[in-house]
Structure formats: structure tokens, C-alpha cells
Amino acid sequence: MNLIWLEDFMALAATGNFSRAAQDRHSSQPAFSRRIRALEEWIGAELFDRRSQPAQLTEAGEWFTGVAQELIARVARVPGDARKVAEASSVTLRIASTHALSFTFLPRWLRSLESNTTLGPVQLMSDVLQRCEALMLQSKVQFVLSHAHSKAQGALDAEPYRSTRIGEDLLIPVSAPDGEGHARHQLARRGDAAVPMLQYSEESGLGRIMRAVIGRRLESVPAQAVFTAHLASVLRTMVLDGRGIAWLPQTLVDDDMNQGRLVAAADHAWEVPLEVRLYRDSELLGKAANAFWNAASGG
């Protein structure tokens, strides 16, 4: 029995049409039909009633649907489960972190942990939040480090994942200063000219938080989106160039604001408080990873 046969079976069960299912599977119809027939011969029963249009599942086919779904799911879990077994004795920590935290927060935080525990080798993958979440869902990393907010729940804010708060941050609306040190671009009030906005893309975790927390309030402000990017660091560069306003993490722009390169573009009511959270799978991590988690969470 071949895994491809199971996937072919599920495609045909969904459509009831050999031609369409073969297209969905990027296969010629004769080759697709041969694989379905081979599966039926292996099982020893017909799975589809070919006399009806569209093709209907037989009683054996109805039963086999659940079996096929379970087998496909079990096979899909094998790589992740194998990695978990292998890493039980591994000393390497595999961490995915959003770009903004990789640049500023993570190095300082790791140094603070090293004063209390011995860390082994760290393999860091830095990306946007959506891709960091995908790495955790695929069991390719043991931990994810990201900004978080209670109003913007993500894929890792539910079972079987756990998290611990390890820091805090603040999203601040900032602008380059004018010649007198005031914000070159200020968050406008209704009736004022539209302010140029530098915004996060849909994939960005900070963008997800902004939309959830102040998205509706921003709709009442005259603004024009002039630039969109995944990364806070890219938006920071554009703000420094005087292109508009962006909400940037305090950890990223602290030095810029202290040196006067950036200034607040709105009052404190427009700031968004953030948590910095470390996420993990609730299952066994291995000795080194568990020691790291205990040090991070104070457990």
C-alpha cells in the first residue's frame, strides 16, 4: 500500500469525479484510475460505486474514509515525533524569534539567563511571526519568542502550547523630527490633512496586534498608507528618512529617541503595551530544553 493511494482516495472521495480529482492530484486520469483500482485490489473491496455520477462511496469506502484520514495524519506526524525523540538527548536549543526581538531583546535576555544557568548551543531562526508559528506547528523548533497582546491571540495561544511572560515592550508612534525637534509628521485629527502612514503587512505579528488593539480608532484618523513591510526594522529606516509615522517597539527605537533621531508622533494614549512571551509545546522537550524553559519561566 502506498501513501499516494490514500491521498488519491481522499481527493476522489471529496469530488466524486475522476477527472477533477486527477487534476487536483496533478496526475493523468488513466494513471489516477489505476492507482484507485490498485488500492481497491489491496483492500479486497470496491470503494466507489462507479455506476453513479458523481461516483459514490460504497459501504467499504465510507468505512475506509476514517481509516485513510487517520493514516495520513499519523504519517504527517512522524517527522515531528522523530525530532522530539532525537532531541530528548540533544543539547542544542532551537528557537524561532520575530525579527524585532532578535535584533534587540534576545541577546540581552540570553545574557541574563546565562548568569543563572548554563546554556548549550542555540540555533536561531529569525522570521515574521506567521512563519515562526508555522515552524512550531511543524515541530521544527522547540521555542518561539514573540511580542504578544491579550486582544490578538495567535496559533500558539491554545493547547497544546504553553507560554510564559519574559518581558514587556511598547509600540510607540514615532516620526523623524523637524528642524525644531518636533515631529515632522503628527497623528492628525479629523478634518486635518492625511498623515503618511508606514504600516505592517498581514504576516507581521506587530501588525496583527495593532489591528486588534487600535485598528478601529485609526479608522477615525485621516491617514494614507504610503508604505507596507513585514519588518519593524524596515519601517524604522523609512521613518528615519522622514517618510511618515510608524508604530515601532520601544526596544528597537530607544536609542533613536534618546539621541533625538526619532520623536513621538502622538500622545501616550496611542501607545500599545506589549508582552514578550516565550512559547513551547506542552510535550516533552528533552533535558536541555526543559532546563532552559525552567530558567526562563522561573520554574
From TrEMBL:
InterPro entries, alphabetically?
Answer: LysR_HTH_N, LysR_subst-bd, WH-like_DNA-bd_sf, WH_DNA-bd_sf
Keywords, ordered alphabetically: DNA-binding, Transcription, Transcription regulation
Stretches assigned to the HTH lysR-type domain: 1-58
Superkingdom of this protein's organism:
Bacteria
Gene3D superfamilies noted in UniProt: Periplasmic binding protein-like II, Winged helix-like DNA-binding domain superfamily/Winged helix DNA-binding domain
Enumerate the CDD domains for this protein: PBP2_LTTR_substrate (cd05466)
Pfam families in the record: HTH_1, LysR_substrate
Q: Does the keyword DNA-binding apply?
A: yes
Any GO molecular function: transcription cis-regulatory region binding
> Per the similarity annotation, which family is this?
Belongs to the LysR transcriptional regulatory family.
The identity of this protein, by name, is LysR family transcriptional regulator
Species of origin reads Variovorax paradoxus
